[in-house]
Amino acid sequence: MRQLSTIILLTVISQIKSYSQSHKQMEQAIRETVIKIEQAAAERNNNLLNSLLHEDYRVIANRFKGSNEVTIISKGNYLVMMKNGKIGGTKYSIEFNQINITSHTAIVDLTYKSESEPDMHKYLVLIQNEENSWEVISDIPLVLE
């Protein structure tokens, strides 16, 4: 009986440790994805952005820059705006405020800081695709003025 209890305890500890490592690995992969997206936007690298954004990606801008409306921008329109220089081109430093992961979905609370543009608070929703890579499906920016 004592051996069985020891085996069960070691199995439980092993599973907890495995979960913790897996969670940390997912968090690191999410951080890397977010950093790549920021760099790609700063460089207006549409090829890289296209690979990091889910096909159903949307920007949801609520009262953005003084507007009283919600603006929703599809991935296609976002990439066209990037290509035409209407958005992107600004280098931001990123502060990760919080990363919440549930299964194959994550919500990331960020602050983007720039010396030349107003800072932004962002909420990104990421999903893990079939290849276990993280893609951003939703971006909710708030300009801090």
Automatic annotation (TrEMBL):
Can you name this protein?
Answer: DUF4440 domain-containing protein
Q: What is the lineage of its organism?
A: Bacteria, Pseudomonadati, Bacteroidota, Cytophagia, Cytophagales
